[in-house]
Design a protein that fits this description.
This protein is an alpha/beta fold. The chain has one domain: Rossmann fold (3-Layer(aba) Sandwich), CATH 3.40.50.2300. Helices cover about 45% and strands about 20% of the residues. The protein contains five helices and five strands, in the order E-H-E-H-E-H-E-H-E-H. Strand 1, helix 1 and strand 2 form a beta-alpha-beta unit. The longest helix is centred in the N-terminal third of the chain and has 13 residues. It is globular. The mean pLDDT is about 95. Keywords: Phosphoprotein. One of its GO terms (biological process) is phosphorelay signal transduction system. InterPro entries: CheY-like_superfamily, Sig_transdc_resp-reg_receiver.
């Protein structure tokens, strides 16, 4: 079962996205801010991280850069999530090291496709059912 770490400061967003992904066969863990996301990445070694870009003191770009700078966590793919759909936000997230970018509210089918792209064979069979 693929482990997804969701780094999101909004408890409603964490709950909704977490439940939707759990129903698709993923194991889910949460972090509420950049520093706890960095720690969780190091401890949990998730298969993929969904990183909110609009976090508090330490934004998602900085947290991503720190995760990828650590040899223990540098291999973990990070998908940026943000409520901002500006091209400059996408460019900034990708420049920070995110492998992909998606907007909120999350289109689950589109996000599942992006997760499948980075996880490949680790993707739960239920997640690959797009109907």
């Amino acid at each position: 079962m693929a482990l997804v770490l969701i780094v999101e400061d909004n408890p409603i967003n964490r709950d909704v996205l977490g439940r939707r992904l759990e129903r698709r066969g993923f194991s889910i863990r949460f972090a509420e801010d950049g520093p706890s996301g960095i720690t969780a990445a190091k401890v949990l070694k998730p298969d993929v991280i969904l990183m909110d870009m609009g976090l508090g003191e330490m934004d998602g770009c900085e947290a991503t850069q720190r995760i990828l700078a650590d040899p223990e966590t540098a291999h973990i793919p990070i998908i940026a999530l943000t409520a901002s759909a500006f091209e400059s936000d996408r460019v900034r997230a990708l420049a920070a090291g995110c492998v992909d970018f998606d907007t909120k509210p999350v289109d689950l089918q589109r996000l599942l496709g992006k997760i499948q792209d980075v996880l490949g064979p680790k993707t739960p069979a239920a997640a690959m059912t797009f109907g």
